[in-house]
Amino acid sequence: MIDVKNLTYTYMKKTPFEKTALNEISFRVNEGDFLAIAGHTGSGKSTLIQIISGLIEFKNGTVEIDGEPVAKKNARRKIGIVFQYPEHQLFEETVEKDIAFGPANFGLSDEEISARVEYAMKLVGLSPELKNVSPFELSGGQKRRVAIAGILALKPKYLILDEPTAGLDPGAKKNLTEEIRKLHKSGVTIIFVSHSPEDIVKLANRVLVLTHGKILFDGEPQELFSRPELLETSGLLPPPVTQIMFRLKKSGFDVDTKIFTIDDAEKEIVKKFRR
């Protein structure tokens, strides 16, 4: 369990540029959760995930990983973080070497490193034939999978993804979304930052919305996207399908606005207009 209590973080204290990024944040991430973190630019999302992963030191509040402070090495090793556009961080000659870089720094044996590379590639749906291929010859979606595999090879208990599908074409986005879903089913607890309402609805069982460094909402995505007042305050939009249903409702059609997928919208419209 990740337990965040009364977390406050201020950048550039006691300067003219002082800014409070997080203000008395408290929440828990239970094992097995698939938590989305959403909010407008500057709401504190990036600061929060960097603190949880142990990359930013803080003084006010506590962050514990399975009962241990995140400052402890054992706690930090349970967290893996993949930043937005992680493919920009690829640098080795082959896919295998790139994925093996982290485990090699842990001092593991060659046999264990090889096993972890195979394990990580399988988790993200990368073909074994790609081991000896340069990562720079791969598609954008494949590069991102390699980058994620490099973190998974460290076998983190908790995985943090920052805008995992940003910038991908529709096909690559769909494929990566499916692989992330499989990762969660394999037992990895996932936290992901996203501006995409479609990704949040498809993947998350819970969404945390930040605004001006505070928690505005903590609950199911379907509840969030069916409450226009919350969306307006947070600067978020519902999925495009939901927006269409809202417009139909506003135009006088008696349709359910708690619709988040094309299939459900089709069923609802057919049901209403065949009467």
Rg from alpha-carbon coordinates:
20 Å
End-to-end Cα distance:
50 Å
Tally of DSSP β-strands = 10
Number of separate helices: 11
Assembly of the depicted chains: single chain
Principal-axis shape equals globular
Largest sheet: 6 strands, mixed
Spans of at least 5 consecutive residues with low confidence: none
Secondary-structure content class: alpha/beta
Q: How big a fraction of the residues is strand?
A: 15-25%
Explained architecture:
With 275 residues, the chain is α/β, with parallel strands linked by helices. 39% of the residues lie in helices and 22% in strands. It contains eleven helices and ten strands. The strands form two sheets. The chain has a six-stranded mixed beta sheet with strand order 6-7-8-3-9-10, sandwiched between helices. It has a four-stranded antiparallel beta sheet with strand order 2-1-4-5. A hairpin with a 2-residue loop joins β9 and β10 (214-219). The termini are far apart.
List the helices and strands and how they pair.
Layout (H helix, E strand, L loop, with lengths): L1 E10 L7 E11 L4 E6 L5 H8 L7 E6 L2 E2 L3 H4 L2 E4 L12 H11 L4 H14 L16 H13 L5 E5 L7 H16 L3 E5 L3 H7 L2 E6 L2 E6 L1 H4 L3 H7 L5 H11 L11 H12 L2
Helix pairs in contact: 3-4, 3-5, 4-5, 5-6
